[in-house]
Amino acid sequence: MAALINNTKSLWRRSIRLKDNQQPDLTKPGSSELPVTLAVIGCGQRGKAYTRYALRAPERCKVVAIAEPRPKTRQHFADLHKVDRTLVFDTWEDLLAASAETISTIGKRLADAVLIAVQDHMHAQVAVAFAAQGYHILCEKPMATSVQDCIKITNAVNDSGRIFGMGHVMRYSPYSREITEIIRSGALGELINVVQVEPVGYYHFAHSYVRGNWSKEKSSSFSLMTKCCHDIDLICNWFYPAVPVKVSSFGSLKHFRKSAKPKAAGSATRCLECAHEKDCPYSAKKIYLDPVAQGDLEWPAETIVDGLPDIENITEALQKGPYGLCVYESTNDVCDNQVVNIEFSNGTTASFTMIAFTEAICDRQTRLHFSHGEIIGDMRTFTVSDFRKRTTKVHRPKNEGGGHGGGDLGLIRSFVDAVSTGQQNLLGTNASEVLKSHLTVFAAEKSRRTGSVVDCIAFEQEARETSANESM
Ligand SMILES: NC(=O)c1ccc[n+]([C@@H]2O[C@H](COP(=O)([O-])OP(=O)(O)OC[C@H]3O[C@@H](n4cnc5c(N)ncnc54)[C@H](O)[C@@H]3O)[C@@H](O)[C@H]2O)c1
């Protein structure tokens, strides 16, 4: 513990902005001379994605502490970011306890901010605990898996008065930002209707929502929440300041169930022993083993083993783990197709479709209909038609790379800017707004389950009353 405290003191000397109640006197983003220090909770896919920025812009932010239970993943991450070994922890609870220790002994946190990149069901507990210690927080989406937990996080963050970022990365891509600017400029008149399709991708869906982390509602959440809360958030942002007033939704788990299993697959429950495997687009051999055999060690193969994938460990994972199971014999229960309709307070409308069965992987197809124009986009380029000028122009927003059309980079950069200047508005949203868009997603799911149109205002009121009663 002495080493931890000494190390924390020395980190703190290099990063004096950790003082309680101290507001940086910096006036513009990027003006800090000191990098924002980050503690990463969960060093998996998303922890890695955001912290590439720390390697790319070390003068802006630095990873100084991590928590990760998988030994090889932890070691690799610690080495990559040169994290002092006194600040490498197995679990978030260990990191939190060490932080409590340094707060009580020397009055300092381990870092300026925590990046919460553990699985969905853990977000609430982790976010509330670190908010109580006064950390700035960047939390992966979804905020949490229940309405009440989302409210708890919002209250904890608002009470702490710290910066809060949400992994709604699509808001932060150059593509979305340019479209948002056109909407706000009024150049095409009033935005009247949005149609958005989220094409999840056939093998991506099989990987994540049939075999993987988001396949069961009980251990994560319903698929509209886990996959599409940022679509709904983006749509709500586009219509702002109008708010959703009514929502309806339909959807089902149509295909990935036993009744759709091809006869030729017989009684096989794993792809490696299935006679039909060669003809199945969802074959685990095709998704994981074949790419690794061809030297492709990246997603999705890298996510199913600890450390670097190779033929041996992937084969073992397919023989024993969930990623080798037949998609018709898995334990999944989340929808593979869902539609949502939203009416906003100013009479405008949106429709959204989440669908598993696409060649495209997550490249949203979007149509925005204005009183005097139209935008049609595919998340890479978009075409603007101006009815008044009778012009049509193709826009190709500059993408600096990284996931979600540059949204991952856009979010972490905005978060670091917000922390280094103390300006929440640089994120363009806050915990209360994030809560509101999540409430719309919960309301849509209620509609799907009950077969009724849900009144969003009454839904929110009821949620807040329940929360208030629970905390009495
Ligand atoms: N913003 C987006 O577009 C987007 C995309 C994908 C996933 N996500 C969300 O990001 C989060 C992380 O997803 P992922 O794909 O990185 O998952 P992942 O499984 O790759 O990473 C999670 C990591 O947390 C670690 N972990 C587990 N228990 C822990 C503990 N007690 N303490 C510390 N670490 C622990 C795991 O070992 C793992 O390395 C999820 O909430 C997911 O829904 C968001």
TrEMBL record:
Q: Which residues form the Gfo/Idh/MocA-like oxidoreductase N-terminal domain?
A: 38-168
The GO molecular function terms of this record are: nucleotide binding
Domain Gfo/Idh/MocA-like oxidoreductase C-terminal residue range list: 182-454
Which InterPro entries does this UniProt record tie to the protein?
Gfo/Idh/MocA-like_OxRdtase_C (IPR004104), Gfo/Idh/MocA-like_OxRdtase_N (IPR000683), Gfo/Idh/MocA_Oxidoreductases (IPR051450), NAD(P)-bd_dom_sf (IPR036291)
Positions of transmembrane segments: none
User: What Pfam families is this protein classified in?
Assistant: GFO_IDH_MocA, GFO_IDH_MocA_C
Q: Which PANTHER family match?
A: BILIVERDIN REDUCTASE A, BINDING ROSSMANN FOLD OXIDOREDUCTASE, PUTATIVE (AFU_ORTHOLOGUE AFUA_3G11840)-RELATED
Annotated protein name in UniProt: Gfo/Idh/MocA-like oxidoreductase N-terminal domain-containing protein
Q: Which organism is it from?
A: Gymnopilus dilepis
